[in-house]
């Protein structure tokens, strides 16, 4: 196969190879703009005093991260567009604020996701997952630098800090991290971009557009089978749960040893209380307002249904999508954790960061569930019931779930609750 960089000129062997570089078309270095990339490592230690060997690694590591962030955002924008097909109006926004960016109006009604695109969504989400795995691991390379080596050039960096990474913030916002869920110091992260109107514009846009979480919720709320006039999954599921809890209570009461009986009874009580929070919309919403749950009520129901019936052909890919979304959340948390550990190793737990935060203490606080966008998917396991208690599908429902059709059809479901930007 001809190399695309050589403009279709067939490969040549031996001495004739020399002629290839003479031919029209682009050379490797030109195509990849290596003149720019490979000259972008400016060691401040060399400029100010004596070159510190490890500063090179420090710069390359950060640059590699930023390049991968760029690729993740690129994939994420197209995944969001696939979840939110618009009549040719949704151009994935770019970082540079160029004119192809059109912000998406608030509360716009979602279009139906064409199910033939779920494989493409899955492919891109999996790619993001693999990149994140790499990013989690990459921390270990930088850890080969010792704290003493870092100390030798750290002062030159001030006030530069990863806190000012625009792409990291865009990534968080595009996934669905919300301002009010950030820890206090982080709520004012936009301050650091004050002198860069393009960055501010990109951030504003990323906060206003429907996030991936929002789009996923809209899609989940339309899961076929939720409609109470049709299969009524939620009603059937509640009856199964009531039966299960009654059986467990009966079993607990039969225990002859008081200690064991009390243990089992309190276990059943806490399960009852947990289930109550998903069967009462107001309890659910109270948890949402405290940031302990993120999904709309209808989206949560869709996620439970897909999880329980994941073996049905039409739910197989949606279930894999939910798994990938959890992987993304979980890998970002792992990255935060590895980064915090590295920071403690490099500067301890008492020094301020170059960006002005409390350093280790601030970063440790970002490890909380508040930053998990798909928190509800992690917690779904609380609401699983044994296979034999899963409500059997009706013949009509079985048929509906046995074939993929053109989309989560709105007629499948009247329960078309929308996830607005305000309520995610
Ligand atoms: C020696 C290595 C590193 C040290 C000591 C370090 C230190 C810190 C500190 C102290 C903060 C808190 C903000 C501040 O006050 O400065 C921070 C934030 C951050 N750093 Fe690093 N960092 C290191 C490497 C990296 C690398 C390789 C990346 C990759 C891009 C990175 C990305 C970030 C990001 C995105 C934040 C913001 C996190 C948030 O606010 O949730 N850091 N870093």
Which helices and strands occur, and which strands form pairs?
Layout: H1 17-20, H2 28-31, H3 34-37, H4 44-48, H5 55-83, H6 118-142, H7 147-157, H8 166-175, H9 184-187, H10 197-208, H11 212-221, H12 233-253, H13 258-279, H14 281-289, H15 297-308, H16 313-347, H17 360-365, H18 375-378, H19 395-402
The chain binds protoporphyrin IX containing FE (HEM).
Family: Belongs to the tryptophan 2,3-dioxygenase family.
Catalytic activity: L-tryptophan + O2 = N-formyl-L-kynurenine
Cofactor: heme
Structure report:
Helices cover 55% and strands 0% of the residues. With 424 residues, it is mostly helical. The chain has one domain: Methane Monooxygenase Hydroxylase, Chain G, domain 1 (Up-down Bundle), CATH 1.20.58.480. α6 packs parallel to α16 and α13 crosses α14. The chain binds protoporphyrin IX containing FE. It is an enzyme of class 1 (oxidoreductase).
**Mean pLDDT, all residues:** 87
How many strand elements? Answer: 0
- Integer-rounded radius of gyration: 26 Å
Please identify, by name, the CATH architecture.
Up-down Bundle
Give the oligomeric state of the chains in this entry, treating copies of one chain as homo and distinct chains as hetero: single chain
Q: Distance between the terminal alpha carbons, to the nearest Å?
A: 49 Å
Instruction: Give the number of helices.
Output: 19
Query: Share of helix among residues?
Result: 55-70%
- CATH-assigned fold name: Methane Monooxygenase Hydroxylase, Chain G, domain 1
Task: Output the helix-strand order.
Answer: HHHHHHHHHHHHHHHHHHH
* Helix and strand composition category: mainly alpha
**Ligands bound, unique:** protoporphyrin IX containing FE
Overall form: globular
Largest sheet: none
Number of separate structural domains: 1
CATH class categorisation? Mainly Alpha
**Uncertain stretches:** 88-110, 414-424
Beta content: under 5%
